[in-house]
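User: Before I run my own analysis I want an independent prediction to cross-check against. Here's the chain; please return only the C-alpha cells and, at the end, one sentence I can use as a sanity check.
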Amino acid sequence: MSLQNKTMKKENFAEDSSVNIICGRNPVIEALKSDSPLDTIYIDGSGGSLNLIRRLAKEKGIVVKDADEKKLSRLSGGASHQGVVAEGACGQYVSLDDILSISREKGTKPFIIICDEIEDPHNLGAIIRTAETAGADGVIIPKRRSASLNATVFKTSAGAASYVPVARVSNLASCIDTLKDNGVWIYGTDASGTDYCDTDLTGSVALVIGSEGFGISKLIQQKCDFMIKLPMAGKINSLNASVAAGIFMYETVRQRRK
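Assistant: C-alpha cells:
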C-alpha cells in the first residue's frame, strides 16, 4: 500500500460546512475507493453508477439514505449533484514531511506543486487533478488567501483530491526553506523567467503557481531558485493558472522520461 493510502499526520479541515459535502457520482465513487472519511451518502434513484455507490458504501459500512431532489439540492448548495451527495470530510490535509516521504518511499526525486494564493476553487481543483495524472507527490497551499479543500475543489478535481496529498501550511516561505533543506529546487512561474523548454526540470522539483490576478508574491519570488515562463505568441499575455500549471507539470514529466 502506498503512503498516500496509509494513515498520515492530518490537519482538520476549516470549520466550514462546504468542506463536508462531496457532490457528483464520480467524485463520490473515488472518495469511496480511496477510503475518504464519509458519514452518510444521500441518493436519489438507482441504476448504473448509483448502484455501484450503494454497493461500495455497503462494503465499507457507510450509511446510505434515499433523498429527493429538494434534499440533495439543499445539501449541495445548488451545485450539480447528479443524484448523489456524500456527507463527511472531502479528504484530509497531510504534513509537509508526509509529502517529502512519498518520493523517498517511491525511490524517485521529489515532484511537488506549490499554489501561492490560488483563491478560485475551480483552479485549485483543476491543478490537483493534473497533479494526480502527472504523478506529482503532493500539492502545498497556504492557510490564508487560498481556496481550501472544499466541495467545489473536490468536484472540479474529478475525484483526484481523494488521492493527491495536500499540505496546508501557515508560512509558505518557511515551507520553501524546508524544501530547500531537503534538496528540492524551487521553480517559480512568471513572465520574467527563462523559457520553460530551456530549463532543466529533471531534478528534485517544486513548481510554484501564482495567483490568478497577481501571480507569485514578491516574497515567494525571492525564495525561488529559478523563474520559468511560457512563450506567448498571441495578443493575450497570460494563461489561466490551472492551464499554465498543467503545461509546466507535463514538461517536467516529459523531461523525466528522457
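Sanity check: Residues 241-256 form the longest helix (16 residues).
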